[in-house]
Amino acid sequence: MTYQSRYAWSVLFRLFHWAFALSIVTLVVTGLYVNSPWTNTVLEGSRSFPMATMRYLHFLAGFIFASAVAVRLYLWLFGNRQEKFWDSAPITPRNIRNLFSTMAYYTYLTDRHETRLGHNALAGTVYLATIVLTLIQLVSGFYMLYPESVFWQKWGVALFETQQQARFIHHLLMWYFIIFAFFHLYIVIWNDIKSPEGLISSIFCGRKFHRSSS
Ligand code: HEM
Ligand code: HEM
Q1: CATH number of this structure's domain 8-211, picked from the four choices 3.30.70.120, 3.40.50.970, 1.20.950.20, 1.10.10.10
Q2: Distance CA 64, CA 21 (A)
Q3: Which residues line the pocket of ligand 2, CB cutoff 6 A?
Q4: pLDDT digits (tens, 9 = 90+) for 56-73
Q5: Which residues contact 70 (CB under 8 A, 6 or more apart)?
Q6: For the whole prediction, is pTM greater than 0.85?
């Protein structure tokens, strides 16, 4: 079997990935601090005021996260073939077949699987759900940040009604992102070991080893 080195991910896609991943790590750490500060109240009352710093970092990371999501939405429409929405979303017969064959492969029911330059359809489906959840996370975050803004109030009230409800959903969604990150790391490492495609290095350098038909 021969493999060819092929260009899979554009620079913009890789920038999106790392901005998204690093902002989520920052948002989780600072968000947990906002929820239950691990320093003591004496420090909070002093000039160092860690809560203010943590909230500032949370909002800064929130804007990076929002920009990364905007880039991803752009790439769904205007990215290269692998980055486009319909390449891995479960909306075509080819992707629906791939969704089930990937599930069988991941559960060790078969050893055969279609290798793709882009995401497999199971990954594509999870990434799609993740981006939808980021939109809910963004609305709840900006609704809490700008409660007086008519724009965010309209969306916030429509989706969550009260600020407290928005805060609760915002907190619950954090756990989705934490669980996603652990599963994601497990799956990319598993794939990297199972198939000689260089999956992990592809998110740094953009190139993958693709099985050629000859
Ligand atoms: C060292 C850590 C990480 C590595 C090596 C890594 C690696 C990768 C790789 C290889 C892909 C493409 C996989 C495929 O084709 O299905 C990918 C996609 C993705 N990763 Fe990561 N990742 C890391 C951390 C994270 C973190 C912390 C997050 C967020 C919680 C994240 C979110 C995503 C998302 C959303 C995609 C899909 C991109 C899209 O098409 O929309 N990654 N990652
Ligand atoms: C994956 C992304 C995010 C995670 C994991 C996250 C996590 C959290 C957590 C855990 C809290 C504390 C809520 C509680 O009391 O339980 C929080 C609060 C908050 N977050 Fe986020 N957040 C994210 C994205 C955002 C974004 C994009 C914004 C908008 C800029 C934002 C704005 C806020 C605001 C305004 C608060 C309330 C702060 C306060 O009351 O002092 N968050 N976030």
Answers
A1: 1.20.950.20
A2: 10
A3: 24, 27-28, 31-32, 34-35, 55, 58-59, 62, 65-66, 137-138, 141-142, 144-145, 167, 170-171, 174, 177
A4: 999 999 999 999 999 999
A5: none
A6: yes
